[in-house]
Amino acid sequence: xxxxxxxxxxxxxxxxxxxxxxxxxxxxxxxxxxxxxxxxxxxxxxxxxxxxxxxxxxxxxxxxxxxxxxxxxxxxxxxxxxxxxxxxxxxxxxxxxxxxxxxxxxxxxxxxxxxxxxxxxxxxxxxxxxxxxxxxxxxxxxxxxxxxxxxxxxxxxxxxxxxxxxxxxxxxxxxxxxxxxxxxxxxxxxxxxxxxxxxxxxxxxxxxxxxxxxxxxxxxxxxxxxxxxxxxxxxxxxxxxxxxxxxxxxxxxxxxxxxxxxxxxxxxxxxxxxxxxxxxxxxxxxxxxxxxxxxxxxxxxxxxxx
Length: 306
Fold this sequence. Notes:
five-stranded parallel beta sheet, 10 helices, seven-stranded parallel beta sheet, 2 domains, elongated, 30% helix, alpha/beta, Rossmann fold
């Protein structure tokens, strides 16, 4: 028997056609009133309609699985009823986020921001500001998973040396407790940690104080992993530089100090936004539905909040 699959009403025709061969499809609206009971469902895909999905989940009978389109699940994990399996989109964003990290490192090291600003003014800025290359650079990846592996694969051809760190040690990956000894040797620190109670503001004043002067902090995970006040202090003192795709608060309000501090590159949480994101995400959904129908183990099951 085909599973009952709930998807956002605005799901494109392409994924619908593929999924209709694997499951019985049911739509939920992005907004508006909803009945107390919406019927049976085996799996729900939140896609980009997480807020609406959270309203729908308790209204579906027999729901077994919720599938997100995000690798981080901090916005939903604590709101999933007991007995329902939550799966994230690990693997979907590896390429796009890894490319953003590489772009941010190169742009920061080559001082691209002031050059682009000069272009906007129609100014030929021939200022002899010394830039950095990646050959021989020590890059510390904090939160080494599938995205971290994709970042490493793109850094190595540039001659960078990569040190891997995760919350739990494993073969080739050091434990997060080793950071005080690792940070002083790092030219670049890439943050890829999920946001959990244990990682919230993990990058605090003590963490930043162990970074060497002039080092670059790159955050492509969640803004809440970094203590914003501590980061502002370190940047304001000129000790470090930063490239941020995520901030706390987010969106970053007008007039916030991070906008104007020197040595900071900020993008508005767009690291994963590429044309093929949707294709990869719906491909994951199709595989998950097929696994569910066959009674096989699902991919990317969230355990302990990530």
